[in-house]
Specification:
It is a single chain. By secondary structure, the chain is an alpha/beta fold. It folds into three domains: about 80 residues, no CATH class; about 200 residues, Rossmann fold; about 150 residues, 3-Layer(aba) Sandwich (Rossmann fold). The protein is about 40% helix and about 15% strand. The strands form five sheets. A five-stranded parallel beta sheet has the order 4-3-5-6-7, with helices on both faces. Helix 6 packs parallel to helix 7.
Length: about 475
């Protein structure tokens, strides 16, 4: 009786599965049928029969110990028969398994801290996006899964990003709200070479001196927001004497820098400025100083729950000075209620009149029982952008996804919902899009408790380029790394 060839350590010779035609299956079945009892099946021989084992993203697993596992002739014959019946030209079971695995997208979003209230909106927006994709057959014929983690703070955000990449094997990460967390995670995904789409962090630094090849932004940057609201205030309201109140962290500092530059460029005057720690609950000392300074405008660079607390206390103090903000999240404006006043820039508002926007807002309300806020919009767009990149690249390889998104214009059913083409700039990966100046609506005109804003201007107007409110390339410090 002739034995099968032996490997150096006693296992079957390691022939690549890709080299075995279907006729080899019949030959092996015949050979094994002639052997009584059990066949020692080592790690090497398992790989010879079934091909290398793979993680969910299709990369080889770490080398495993040489362990012998008994395989009965009956079990082997059953496996071989299944492979032949499936019509395979080779015993490539791992490839079949990979084709059926879901495409996993990771989401980092805050559920705790002063930005915590926005997290649930972001999760709901991303979830709705994933559900829409799966209702249409998934992406590349594969189901899409969303794995959400709390970004909490920069240290935790980096740990969670590593978990999503190394354990969950996500093809991309989206989300983020804190600019500090986004900067830290951006460094991490660049190291790991995994695509990330920032859907909520505003700092210009993310798109400028700390930009990365594997990081894109669907969220607007501080320059886009300030250009929209600041230009409108100076042009339409002739307001030139500003007092600044700023959150004392990365986002606030960057927003203050951008606002000061705009004010100076328009020959305005800064009459006062204060930094407030994040999580401040009592703003009375700052409001007292504002009264004494008598500016034309109080311009806040606050975020999260700080916005809610400040605007409530500003109204309670009887302040009549014009108030505006560099950025506003509707999730933090809604709780202000009838005390809300002023003008703000917003990336998206659920009453936007484009047909695509109205249809999506209706789907969101039906699914979640409340209108979507701007963070829900950002995460929704990010999920669809990832899906479009995968479809365009016909791959989940991150380098190919980066190439697919550079210069990509959002298309199809999800074009950004704004009724005009939205494109990722190739050189800094910022999505070019309009902003909306909104005014607080008098309570007597509310249709419901969500009806707090009315859109007074789209910036820039449709006749103008979206580049007019973005960071000019000549002023940017962005130097994207090589893709390799």
């Amino acid at each position: 009786m002739t034995r099968p060839p032996r490997g150096a350590r006693g296992g079957a010779a390691r022939y690549p599965a890709s080299c075995w035609p279907s006729s080899a299956v019949r030959v092996m079945v015949a050979m094994v049928s002639s052997f009584p009892g059990r066949i020692p099946l080592t790690t090497r021989s398992r790989e010879a029969i079934f091909g290398p084992l793979f993680h969910s993203r299709g990369e080889p697993m770490a080398k495993r110990p040489h362990v012998s596992t008994p395989l009965t002739r009956r079990k082997f014959l059953g496996l071989a028969t299944v492979g032949a019946a499936a019509g395979t030209q080779e015993l490539a079971f791992p490839a079949v398994v990979r084709a059926q695995e879901p495409i996993r997208i990771g989401q980092l979003i805050p559920f705790t801290g002063f930005l915590g209230a926005i997290g649930e909106y972001g999760k709901q927006g991303a979830t709705l996006g994933v559900e829409e994709l799966n209702e249409k057959g998934g992406v590349l014929g594969r189901k899409v899964e969303l794995i959400t983690e709390d970004e909490a703070n920069p240290g935790v955000a980096v740990q969670k990003a590593r978990k999503l990449i190394e354990k969950d094997r996500v093809v991309a990460i989206e989300g983020l709200v804190s600019s500090a967390s986004c900067l830290a995670v951006g460094d991490e995904v660049q190291r790991a070479k995994v695509l990330m789409i920032n859907a909520g962090a505003n700092s210009d630094e993310i798109r400028s001196k700390r930009c990365h090849r594997y990081v894109f932004s669907t969220e607007g940057c501080n320059t886009q927001y300030v250009s929209a609201i600041g230009g409108w205030l100076i042009r339409e309201r002739k307001i030139s004497r500003w007092y600044f109140l700023t959150s004392d962290y990365a986002f606030g500092h960057d927003l203050l820098r951008v606002a000061r530059n705009l004010l100076t460029a328009n020959k305005g005057t800064e009459v006062g400025s204060d930094l407030a720690p994040t999580g401040t609950t009592d703003f009375s000392q700052y409001i007292t100083k504002m009264k004494a300074a008598k500016p034309d405008l109080v311009f806040h660079n606050l975020a999260g729950a700080d916005v809610t607390n400040f605007l409530k206390q500003y109204a309670e103090a009887g302040m009549t000075l014009e108030v505006a903000g560099g950025v506003i999240d509707s999730a933090y404006a809604w709780p202000v209620g009838e005390s809300l006043r002023g003008h703000f820039p917003i990336i998206w508002w659920h009453e936007l009149s484009t047909p695509q926007s109205q249809a999506w807002a209706a789907r969101y309300i039906k699914r979640w029982g409340r209108p979507p806020d701007n963070q829900a919009y950002g995460d929704y767009v990010a999920v669809h952008a990832i899906a479009q990149a995968i479809e365009k690249a016909k791959s989940t390889d991150s380098a190919k996804l980066v190439q697919a998104l550079e210069g990509h214009t959002l298309t199809g059913a999800m074009d950004g919902l704004k009724g005009r083409p939205l494109t990722f700039r190739a050189w800094d990966h910022q999505l070019l899009q309009p902003m909306y100046v909104v005014a607080a609506r008098d309570k007597s005109k509310w249709r419901d408790k969500w009806d707090i804003f009315e859109i007074v201007s789209e910036v820039p107007p449709r006749a103008e380029s979206l580049e007019t409110i973005a960071i000019p390339k000549a002023e940017s410090q962005c130097q994207l790394e090589p893709l390799a």
